[in-house]
């Protein structure tokens, strides 16, 4: 249960109800972060526009690499909602969710490509407190992904840090977006 109660549909404003209906059609349920952010219409609008815009415009990288880096941040920060939602996104995208069980051992796992390993290490370095990103990491990823790809990766990792830390602070936990035990990847 979140630390701030979600606003139910019956008590939501007309605009919030619109967002709820759209989200329910898209995801099968209203994401709890949306229902909590509904306490502040400006925050809800900003978050919704940012998420929608990012989903439509950030396409320089393969979805598998984007989603994997974002998922890694969620596990490092410990946001169970983000892990749950991220697993669902990868499953619906036709990606191999079984390999997520090896996410903590990505550096030595043969389930990840070298590019994925570099992106995951970059996600770890950006998420560390304080961040530990090195010139070498940036140079390697820039050579491989290009300026546009590296910028996209950096932005998405930063957004997930904001998202995961915010949802974690508000006590928003997994919502059951994944079926079976797919979301039962242990958090650190």
Automatic annotation (TrEMBL):
Stored SUPFAM superfamilies: AhpD-like
Quote the protein name from its UniProt record. Carboxymuconolactone decarboxylase family protein
Q: Where is the Carboxymuconolactone decarboxylase-like domain?
A: 58-124
Q: Which Gene3D superfamilies match?
A: AhpD-like (1.20.1290.10)
């Amino acid at each position: 249960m979140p630390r701030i109660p979600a606003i139910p549909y019956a008590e939501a404003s007309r605009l919030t109800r619109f967002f709820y209906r759209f989200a329910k059609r898209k995801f099968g349920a209203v994401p709890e972060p949306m229902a909590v952010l509904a306490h502040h219409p400006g925050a809800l609008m900003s978050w919704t526009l940012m998420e929608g815009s990012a989903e439509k415009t950030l396409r320089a990288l393969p979805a598998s690499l984007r989603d994997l880096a974002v998922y890694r941040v969620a596990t490092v920060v410990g946001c169970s909602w983000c892990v749950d939602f991220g697993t669902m996104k990868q499953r619906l995208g036709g990606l191999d969710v079984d390999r997520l069980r090896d996410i903590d051992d990505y550096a030595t796992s043969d389930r990840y490509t070298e590019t994925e390993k570099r992106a995951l290490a970059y996600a770890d370095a950006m998420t560390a407190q304080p961040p530990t990103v090195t010139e070498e990491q940036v140079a390697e990823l820039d050579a491989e992904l290009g300026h546009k790809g590296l910028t996209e990766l950096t932005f998405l990792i930063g957004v997930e840090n904001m998202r995961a830390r915010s949802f974690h602070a508000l006590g928003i936990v997994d919502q059951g977006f994944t079926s079976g035990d797919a979301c039962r990847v242990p958090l650190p």
